[in-house]
Write a structure and sequence with these properties.
It is built from 3 helices and 22 strands. By secondary structure, it is mostly beta strands. The longest helix is centred in the first third of the chain and has 13 residues.
Length: 297
Amino acid sequence: MGQYLSTSQAPIRKAQSMQPRAVTYESKDVPIPDDFLRGPPEKPVTCTPVPFATSDVPEYAKCYAVTLDNVVSPEECAQLIQLAEESVLPASEDDPNQGPWRPAMIAVAPGLEGPAPGYRESDRIVWDRQELTDRIWERCCRAEGLAEQLAVVRSDDGYGPLGRPAGQWELSQINKRMRFLRYSPGQFFKPHVDGAVSYEEDGSSFQTQYTVHLYLNDSAEVSPGSKLVGGATGFLSRDRKRRIDINPKGGSVLIFQHRRLLHEGAKVKKGQKFTVRMDVLYKWVEDAAPDVVPDAA
């Protein structure tokens, strides 16, 4: 079986101009129009399961992955990119990356991130904005049955984090963190499995369970007139010899479980690929204690 990398475990090769640094994300307070991403989209949102069972990677048949079409319009996609670029604080004078787009990093230790040339090569903008992610998620949930399908996640053994009593993960909300990604010709993200992010807050446990990718432009594979060639999200067999590709389609969303699904951002051959990565957040809810039936007198 071939080896694969988690985004939290990938080896780091230092770039001369970039060293591991503390994770700090600060943004401008960009005003969001009241009507932006409000209300139903122009067309009904449709949900289509990724057909693992009939693909070249049938071993993923029991894994959850779906595509949603018509979530965001082309105009809204362009406005999202513009707002993200406006959210970026000016770079310091000694920062070689003076534009809004900065090289994408990966986690190398708690609170630290660093470059991974040869493994992850793209640019990104990180923007925490719950208001926007909530609006995007409301659009996603217009797909029939989606919210019900994602409402609960049971752990394999029924027990939660840190030895908590039996229970289940219940959907809390979509996370506030948006990772806007820009892939230029020759850029890619090598095969990896998305790791869950866990934290404790006010005595409760939270964890991400699903990845949400909103594509912001079309590839030539779905729209022949597009300047973008390549850049598919590919789900791969462990030996990387078999795959099924999801080609970027502006305004569509790909949702898939973190666990088990080895995937990559395939190399962009021409043009630029724009996407937003988000996560679905869950809260651990303990099973109700069974009622105690008193002994008969």
